Request: fold
Amino acid sequence: MSIADRVRTEIGAGGPAFPKLLPIVDPEGVPGEEFLEEVRGILASKQLTNGAYVRKFEEATAEYLGVAHCVAVSSCTAGLLLVLKALDLRGEVVLPSFTFHATAHAVVWNGLTPVFADCDAKTFCVAPEAAQAQVSSRTAAILAVHLFGNPAAIEELEEIAAELRIPLVFDAAHAFGSSSHGRHVGGFGTAEVFSFSPTKLVVAGEGGLVATRDARLAEKLRAARNYGDAGNYNPEVLGVNARMSEINAAMALHGLAGLDARIERRNEIRLRYEKKLRDVAGIRFQEVSEGGRSTFKDFSVIVDEKEFGHSRDWLVELLHRENIGARKYFSPPVHRQKLYSAMWDGRALPVTDVVSDGVVSLPIYSSLTDDSVDRVCEVIRQAQRLDNDK
Ligand SMILES: Cc1ncc(COP(=O)(O)O)c(C=O)c1O
Reply:
């Protein structure tokens, strides 16, 4: 009997555990047909960009986050790129390698050198002591990531940056709605940059947002997202077209409604996963930072091959055969990717390697049912019990 058949027998399924693909992501807060009325209104107004919806989205996000300045942009990547540009940096930027590669792209697009720091084994966010070990007189900024929505070690990183008098920027792509000690992510560091692409909890289609307490930086970013033109056709900063369109802003505004309930539901789901998988040998979980609330943009477990008895890749293949949309976020880590291996300074990143080699991201979204979570867990439980033989 094949391994898949044995798992199916154990969980009482004739075919795959899910007859249809259980996707890893289901875009959240996306409006239905009623949105077409708004689109018609936008088309009729002939104001397709630089209009009232973008302004409204910026006001609404500033209020939700409790941050003075929010600048909407076309993507988180563009926002990160422009923040680093607007800060006029030279030299090196310390950042984690256990992240999505767009974090590093923003550094390299600015002609800056990425210097990778190891992540924390529990939170998966950059370890402050590892960041500290990588700073030098060449360090121009620290770029940390609230990974999967888990707030990074904000206070410790702020201390390191303050000591060096350098900017601290957060890639908050996953973290719209996360908080640390009761304060929303968005108001920390020099600036924080969010994403509203379809895998996030607020979806604009494509979109991003820079939140900052720094009025001058916000002003610069408003020009930078508009080719560097502040409106007088006489650019003072180098910009690109990184504007958010009116239709994207209107869609994202819908996503703000019900966000807290979706975060709540995702936290319920991750607790359910943890409860059902806790006693499965060789599976461990991301720990939420002390005093933090995570959006759980992703729910990622780490498979310890020795204890689990099978490799991470074996498990992912098995999950796929059972129609479970599992992914490996983020593997390989950035410093081992083709583009970045030549830029890596060669300093070992042992925790990053272990976490990245073992990571499996499981389906999570607020519409995911408890039954589906239980079934995914049962597949993993049965898989662990199998010998490696066919
Ligand atoms: C950590 C991280 N940073 C940046 C990005 C890029 O976001 P965007 O697609 O909005 O450019 C992503 C995308 O998911 C991400 O995961």
Summary: The longest helix spans residues 259-277. The pocket of pyridoxal-5'-phosphate is lined by residues 75-77, 99-100, 102-103, 145, 171, 173-174, 195, 197, 199, 208 (CB under 6 Å).
